[in-house]
Specification:
Elements (H helix, E strand, L loop, with lengths): L1 E5 L4 E7 L2 E8 L2 E8 L4 E4 L12 E9 L2 E8 L9 H16 L2 E4 L2 H9 L3 H5 L4
Parallel strand pairs: 7-8
Antiparallel strand pairs: 1-2, 2-3, 3-4, 4-5, 5-6, 6-7
Family: Belongs to the NATD1 family.
Protein name: Protein NATD1
Organism: Pagothenia borchgrevinki
Length: about 130
C-alpha cells in the first residue's frame, strides 16, 4: 500500500511494512527514511551511514494516554544531523499517524508545538488536546 503526501518542504511516500511503517523522504538530495516502530512507540530517522558508519538516530517518542489519545513526548536529533529538517520529518510522520489512526494528542514536546504552529494545517490543529 503506497500513497504520496506532499508538503512545502518534502514529499513523502508511505509504505506499510508489517508492524513498522517507513516514510521515505527526498529533501535537498538526501534520502532519509522515517521508521515507525509501533511496538516501542517511536518514530526514528537514521541518516545515511556516511564514511564514519555511525548509527546515531533521531527519534520522536510518544505514549498512549487513552484509547484514542497519545502524548507526543519528545524529539531528539543528534547534533551532527541538526538543521537538515530531520525533526520536521519526524513531526510530520507523527502528525500523519494521528490523522490516519483518528487519534487526538497532547503535545509535550516544544518542537512539535512549533511544527504545528509553522504548518497551520487545519487537520493537525484539530487533533491537539489543549
Amino acid at each position: 500500500m503506497a500513497f504520496k503526501i506532499f508538503s512545502r518542504l518534502t514529499s513523502l511516500n508511505l509504505q506499510i511494512k508489517g508492524p513498522q511503517t517507513a516514510f521515505r523522504a527526498l529533501s535537498s538530495g538526501c534520502n532519509l527514511s522515517v521508521e515507525h516502530d509501533r511496538q516501542n512507540r517511536r518514530f526514528t530517522v537514521t541518516p545515511g551511514s556516511g564514511a564514519g558508519g555511525h548509527a546515531e538516530c533521531a527519534v520522536l517518542h510518544y505514549k498512549f494516554t487513552g484509547e484514542k489519545e497519545v502524548d507526543l513526548v519528545s524529539t531528539y536529533v543528534p547534533e551532527t544531523f541538526r538543521g537538515q529538517g530531520v525533526a520536521a520529518l519526524l513531526s510530520q510522520a507523527a502528525m500523519d499517524f494521528l490523522v490516519e489512526e483518528h487519534l487526538k494528542a497532547h503535545i509535550s514536546c516544544w518542537y512539535i508545538k512549533k511544527y504545528i504552529e509553522d504548518h497551520p494545517m487545519k487537520t493537525y490543529k484539530e487533533l491537539v488536546i489543549p
